[in-house]
Write a structure and sequence with these properties.
Helix content is about 60%, strand content about 5%. The chain is mainly α. The protein has one domain. The strands form two sheets. The protein has a three-stranded mixed sheet with strand order 1-4-5, with no helix packed on it. The chain has a two-stranded antiparallel sheet with strand order 2-3. The longest helix has 26 residues. The mean pLDDT is about 90.
């Protein structure tokens, strides 16, 4: 019986100043992700685990913030909703209405790494390892915020922990007629966020991989994320038209395997001084 399932009812605002202005959980997730990443990277500096200085970490964070937001926003429209931005280019600026892509944000971060490497005269592979080791902090908080917002829900399910997302059928108010779904946002928070973060941190702190083969951890992370995302896409309702019968999240993640393999192969070659 549908009423036996929990009905999602969370307000996307942590608190409000007006009906439409306030502190959103989604925005807070970005802040916590960036702050958490910066804190860990500074720990690397103070324990001699990186070539970067604290000042350079600050510069890197600024470029990463720009890369994530600009890349994520552009990527969402180019990869998932191109028609919308062609019809109304100003929709790119309406960040409060949602619409961010991990794959787009990843490209933005890649550009930030290249820029920081050139500016700081530090090998890009080392910076890529540092960034890869902390990326999942943002994913963890971001996916939890997706759940709180009641967006990016999963496929229809009958598992005991299934959730009724009223937003999945906007015009309906009779909850008894709305199918319960997988809370796929929580699956992603666990696999893409918690599991990958724990693995990357273990590799960074407990092994010599980043010193012996710089770039290897970045390659592992790309492949790991690709696997985690594809697994989670099995339970997630596609939010755009399929490509070759695959959800877009799955299709785009295939390219991460190629990029990850490239990083791992390149990590076996000496770093140019």
């Amino acid at each position: 019986m549908i009423l036996a399932y929990w009905v999602h009812h969370w307000d996307p605002f942590l608190f409000k100043f007006t009906d439409t202005i306030g502190v959103r959980y989604y925005g807070l997730a970005y802040v916590l992700g960036f702050v958490g990443a910066a804190w860990i990277m500074i720990r690397y500096v103070r324990t001699g685990r990186t070539q970067l200085t604290e000042t350079q970490i600050g510069d890197l964070m600024v470029s990463m913030v720009i890369g994530v937001i600009a890349g994520g926003r552009l990527g969402y429209f180019l990869l998932y909703d191109l028609e919308a931005v062609l019809a109304n280019p100003m929709s790119l600026l309406r960040v409060w209405s949602g619409g961010m892509s991990f794959h787009g944000g990843l490209l933005g971060v890649a550009l930030a790494i290249v820029w920081s490497s050139w500016r700081q005269k530090i090998p890009s592979r080392h910076i890529a390892d540092v960034v890869a080791s902390v990326t999942s902090i943002g994913l963890l908080f971001g996916r939890l915020a997706n759940f709180i917002n009641g967006e990016l829900w999963g496929r229809i399910a009958t598992v005991p922990w299934a959730v009724v997302f009223p937003q999945s059928v906007p015009a309906r108010t009779d909850f008894s007629q709305i199918a319960a779904r997988h809370p796929s946002q929580l699956y992603e928070a666990f696999l893409e966020g918690a599991v990958l973060l724990a693995y990357a941190q273990w590799r960074y702190w407990r092994t010599a991989i980043t010193r012996v083969h710089p770039g290897h951890l970045a390659g592992e992370y790309l492949i790991g994320y690709g696997v985690a995302r594809i697994v989670c896409e099995v339970f997630r309702e596609p939010d755009a038209e399929l490509i070759l019968g695959l959800s877009r999240g799955t299709f785009y993640s295939i390219f991460l395997f190629v990029a990850g393999a490239g990083f791992i192969r390149r990590s076996r070659t000496p770093v140019r001084k």
